Amino acid sequence: MASGNIIKNAMGVSIPGTGRAGMNLAAALGSLGDADKKLEVLCGVKDGHIEEAQRMIEEGRIRVEKKETLKKLYIEVTAKSLDHSAKVIIEDRHTNITHIEEDGVVVFDLQEKMAEKEEAYSFMNIDSIFHFVETAPLVKLHKVKESIRINKEIGEEGLKKGYGLKVGKTLYEAMKSGGQVDDAINYAMALTSAGSDARMAGSSLSVMSNSGSGNQGLTATLPVVAYGEKMSHGEEAVIRAVALSHLMTIYIKTKFGRLSALCGATIAATGASCGITYLQQGSKEAVSAAIQNMLGNITGMICDGAKGGCALKVATSTSAACMSATLALSGIAIGSQEGIIEENAEHTILNLGLLSNQGGVESDRIILDIMLEKENRLKKKP
Hints:
Elements: H1 4-10, E1 14-15, E2 20-21, H2 23-32, H3 47-58, E3 74-80, E4 85-91, E5 97-102, E6 105-109, H4 126-135, H5 142-160, H6 167-177, H7 184-200, H8 214-230, H9 235-256, H10 265-279, H11 284-295, H12 310-329, H13 345-380
Antiparallel strand pairs: 1-2, 3-4, 4-5, 5-6
Helix pairs in contact: 1-13, 2-3, 4-9, 5-6, 5-7, 5-8, 6-7, 7-8, 7-12, 8-9, 8-10, 9-10, 9-13, 10-11, 10-12, 11-12, 11-13
């Protein structure tokens, strides 16, 4: 059983190494995998695993249902054999096990569940993030450097091969043929969406995620990397700019929520816009202006599940990130008299959180209802 948000995000995304999609198959393959690999439990799937998983489905041994819960991230798995049973519950974060039962006996129950709490990030704000990025020893940013290597590898993989909708590959080929200008903006769109193409189509390459999302990890990383490459910035400058992007994304996500009716790529792209601004010697005020421009522009893009079409949203969000940075560097920012924008970016981020967490509840329900109704309709077709 899973919450609506989990079902929404698992219905249409390809399973690595299979070329197929679907929660039943993912659950069956997971039961055959190595639990010690955690989020990489499906790594190394072979044809024999797929055949065994398919048999389990055909024999009716796998069942997926929606759990009625207020939690956005909730997974409850019950497994039974002839003699034994086990139940495990995951809440709030993808690896956060909060309850285990063996043969009906509770063997683990985390009373104070490690929910995604804003308090854990209470030290974070635009000022503190900017200060850290400016002053942190480079050795402390080794994870950021690793994210650049890992995410660029899958981005380049997507540029070379025809994954999914081929959004990134098509944009890149248009650049090289003269159909599009070969500049930092178009390269950022191509590289980032190519990574999403590969990720959503089930590439076995790893991705360094951000806030639990691979696409958000790609979007927080690759636009900044693309700018650094095209504009010949040094390695340290790029690492610090990507660090700013990741941290701004994490900070905004603490207000936005881990799963939402709104597209998380827009938040990661807001982080990327900050990183691009910083990379071009933008001040803290310019970084704040980039946030205002992003949240006043693409807020409201819906999340209708993880799937191949996410690459289009990633490309669109990346384009907006580049434009917002350009405007911010020219001293242009949306004013507080407009829409959800406040006098300062911190308060605008809080408004985004209200929109996502309170305003998005009904939208989320409607989106999932549409998706499930469509799936049932397609199943009935001869």
